[in-house]
Each structure stands twice: as C-alpha cells, then as structure tokens.
Amino acid sequence: MQIKNEYTLLASHKRVWGYFTDSKLLRQCIPGCEELKPVDDDVYEATIKVGEASLRGTYKRSVKIENKQPPSAYRLIVEGKSTIGFLKGTCDFRLEKTEPD
User: Fold this and answer.
1) Is the pLDDT of residue 51 over 80?
2) By CB neighbour count within 10 A (0-12 exposed, 13-18 middle, 19+ buried), where does 74 fall?
3) Where residue 84 falls among pLDDT bands split at 50, 70, 90?
C-alpha cells in the first residue's frame, strides 16, 4: 500500500523541521501512535494501535529516523509486532521551501 500526501505550511523552514523531529510532536503525526519514547538518538519505542482488517491490534516496536538531511529530509522506519503478526512501514519526509503565491 502506498499513501502520498502533500501539505503547505505557513511557518519557517526551521520551525517546521523542529516540529517533525520532536518526539512529542512526531507522535501526533503517526496514525494510531499512542506512545513514542526516545531510547537513543533518532530511535524510539512506540505503541501503535491499528484498526484495519487482519492487522487489527496493538503493536510495540520501534520507530527510527534514518538518512537525516537537516533541514530538508529524512526517512521514518516503523516496525511493529503483536500477537497476530508484524508490520513494517516507511515514510519519506521531504521539506521544500516555496515562495508565497
């Protein structure tokens, strides 16, 4: 499954980068993420609740930020296990500065 979204934010490049690299705020951006605790630089322990078909359940595992290129891009890796199986997903985050219309 591939999901692609694009957003325009009215804030400074630095402020937006800070938002998407702060664990307390990043948790709000991960669907179903109930808890995101830092365990190392750019590595987090996560509790993620999924409510989709055969994947339904609560998964505990890790969230990692890789290929960090401040202040423009990184890859978010989410891996999880539960009693019914596992999940793995990636998100490529890219921040581009645009000129106002």
Assistant:
1) no
2) buried
3) confident
Ramachandran assignment for 53, one of left (phi > 0), alpha (psi -120 to 50 degrees), beta (any other): left
Contact 77, 64 (CB under 8 A): yes
The CATH number covering residue 67 comes to: 3.30.530.20
Tokens of 38: 């830092």
Question: How many domains does the chain contain in total?
Answer: 1
86, 80 Cβ separation under 8 angstroms: yes
The pLDDT value recorded for residue 89 is 86
Helix residue ranges, H only, 1-101 = 13-20, 23-29
Beta strand extents in 1-72 (DSSP E only): 33-40, 43-50, 57-69
